[in-house]
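yo

u said u wanted the structure for the complex thing, so here. seqs first:
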Amino acid sequence: MSNASFNQFKGNVNTERVQYIADPQLRNIVNVSIALERPLLVKGEPGTGKTLLSHAIAEALGKRLIIWNIKSTTEAIDGCYMYDTVQRLNDSRFGSDDRNVNNIKDYITLGPLGDAFVSEEQVVLLIDEIDKADIEFPNDLLQELDVMEFYIKETKEFIKAKTRPIVIITSNNEKELPDAFLRRCVFHWIEFPSKEFMAEICNLHYPNLKKNLLDQCLKHFYWLRTITKIRKMPSTSELLDWIGVLLKSGISIDELMKGIPFLGVLIKKEKDLEAVLAKAQFPT
Amino acid sequence: MFVEYFYYLKEILPSVSITEYMTLLQALNKGLIHNMMDFYYISRSILCKNEHHYDLYDIAFANFFKDASIKLTDDINQEIWKWLQKNTEVLNFPFSIREFQNVNLEELERRFEQLLKEQNERHDYGNKWIGTQGQSQFGNSGLNTMGIKVAGGVGLRRAVIIAQKRIFKDYRKDIIIGTRQIKVALKRLRKLGDIGKPNELNLDKTIDLTAKNGGDIDLFFEKRKKNNVKLILLMDVGGTMDPYIHQVNLLFSAANHMSHWKDFKYYYFHNCIYDKLYKNAARTPQRAIDFDDFLRKYKNSYRIIIVGDQCMHRSELKNPRGAIYDGATNKKPGIYYIEEIAQHFKNNVVWLNPEPNTVEWMSWTRLVISKIIPTYPFTIEGVEKAMDYLRTNGKNSYTTVQQLKGVPLAFY
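structre next:
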């Protein structure tokens, strides 16, 4: 392993498509997981940029991003490949111009994992919200993620990764993940940003934001987060949306000093709104 | 020292295995760790796979390096070097992992020197960084008097200080740790039923029908299958159950967090089931359901798991007004309610007993109850067996009911 091949991810991404800034620890861990060729498992409060991280890595390293969104019905094999029997059955009856019924390969479509494996260049593979699937799901992926290959039983062939993809896995803590799976991952819990770091993040997204306006926004925002009764805490993404709304509405700093306009952007549950109003001494 | 570190952590975080340790060595070997701050975060990422454990990690880290700080101030590089030498010996072991076999001593030496060089650069910067950021954040203690001749020393102190802050204290949720095993056991309880519109293709049947149809495709769709099990958890709380609160909580949170059931209900009782079942653990009468209403409300399609140690005074089971804690208002003896449940739910009820199954386990009340309701020890294996019993409606199960059949009990 040469020096150039790690320490690649610098943590700051500011392009048209992705604006992202990672704290130094996270940046470090990303590079460690790339160097060790281990999947990186990221957890954290909703809205702390778990999914965005892989977009940022792909963008920063100039690699293609392949996303595998996990749902409650997703099975491990879905990520590898799908054999379209119905299409084949249909073609056998009615014929097809661009598929050969006798060639089973024409009816095999690779899933996200398969795509990542056959790619000539290294890709970033995001397995998003792995905890959504069945409790055994991660265990079914062990072999695939370890050896980076899988077997298509219909065609009797092995699909082996040409280059090992950079694997990022996110989880929302809905289910516990099995130990055997965890043992193979590098794990990082994204902490909620401090006020200073949050200011950096906001500046990245809104470079022209005035400092006193930002300070006031952050003051409101972190005050909201001290209300323990709130079930769905406002997070980074809500804050950014809210600042966006404030800027569009052209609200003045004086108005912002008086209260929290457009509170609905930050607080999304009715119960939570009530909790905030009960605490607030200002008109909203 | 790294082996020591590993064993020290392993004692506190039992989930740490040799695989993780080897990964950590790999990270060191690849030159990914430049100073103690890196070491703190990277070793956490590799060894500690759950934010609930971060706090334990912090404690372990702070404790381990607390005493080591003086020793390491002068000599951290020496320590790493010693470690590297020691581990080249390990490399020759047949079972050492592949990556290590290709490493030779010169290579390690070269990398180590490089590491040292980098560390010096970072060390200068690090000092500055600490300077500009102000020391107040870390407290005055030690940072100045330590002297900053060696990067490791300062870095170590900072890492330890961060660890000592224990900012992850709130993430500790001891209760959630370990529900996975129980969830896996509970998953055995599954009876599939049809739901929704028929939108899943049955391939075998389609091929069959197509063949019969002379090759004309005849698609056969069927309804999606979903678990049909409705579950009720009845929990004994208070008194002799206190030592098992944690275990019962695990079961409850496992069952409650599973989207596995068609319906999930739970009630509490104390010692024995009487004329009321309670909605909350405090057993407030306002939030109780009458036993008869309970049987009316829940048909025998529900499956019942009762958790309790079956340990009580004889009179609580056999005498009317024996419910000493519930105001002794029960007109019928406790045993009546137990038998009612057994008759109403038939083969859909099991009892989990957390009390260890020792030779003296045959306390009289325990015998009487497990003679009526199949009882399993509240262990992972016991839960699995109990779930198998519920799934198969008691077919092919040899339970305590059969086991105790014909055993004379003085009570009868």
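The longest helix of chain A spans residues 211-224. The two ends of chain A are 57 Å apart (CA to CA).
cya
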